[in-house]
Design a protein that fits this description.
2 domains; mainly alpha; about 65% helix
Length: about 190
């Protein structure tokens, strides 16, 4: 666990000064602590210090301008280049995904339009079938009425024929009666 120093750390791992090419020849090293949880490659490599020949330790600085690991300009350039390629690849993938999304939206809209057209056709078919049913009903009704009218005409024609026969018989009877009446008149007048 990291513990913060208050500046009066008397730990054997903290160095107070280090020589440098500055004006007075020394610079103050920022306070640091040992990272006991670190299990990375530095602890596996046994690098010896050139100054006193002891194994080097990993430390993290919390003060000053140089905190954390230092990278060379070449490493930063390579990292920037790799980051650029990552960003470029992600941008290309985003464009592909956007195109796929737009195609998907277009396909979904096409499906919805087709479904609406199909529903409209089904609605028209239903209306058409209802109209067809009504037409068939009216057609059947008209056919039934035509049959009734035809039967009535036939019946009327038969009755007319029968009536004509009766009329003819009555006229024949009237003529015979008139002939008899004329005979009776001739006998009476005669």
């Amino acid at each position: 666990m990291v513990s913060w120093s208050d500046g009066s750390d008397s730990s054997e791992h903290t160095l107070e000064y280090m020589s440098s090419a500055s004006d007075d020849g020394t610079i103050k090293v920022p306070a640091s602590i040992e990272d006991s949880d670190f299990e990375g490659p530095e602890t596996e490599l046994h690098v010896l210090c050139h100054g006193h020949g002891k194994a080097s330790e990993r430390r993290v600085a919390f003060e000053g301008i140089h905190t954390g690991r230092r990278k060379s300009k070449r490493d930063r350039t390579e990292d920037n280049l790799m980051n650029y390629f990552d960003v470029h690849n992600l941008t290309q993938e985003k464009k592909k995904l956007q195109a796929s999304y737009e195609k998907l939206v277009e396909d979904v809209n096409g499906l919805l339009d087709a479904q609406e057209r199909r529903a409209e056709v089904e609605r028209k078919d239903l209306e058409s079938s209802k109209i067809q049913e009504k037409y068939d009903m009216v057609k059947n009704l008209a056919a039934a009425q035509a049959n009734v009218i035809r039967n009535m005409k036939l019946k009327l024609a038969e009755e007319r024929k029968n009536l004509q026969i009766h009329i003819d018989e009555l006229q024949k009877t009237v003529e015979e009666s008139n002939v008899k009446l004329e005979g009776i008149k001739a006998i009476i007048n005669g």
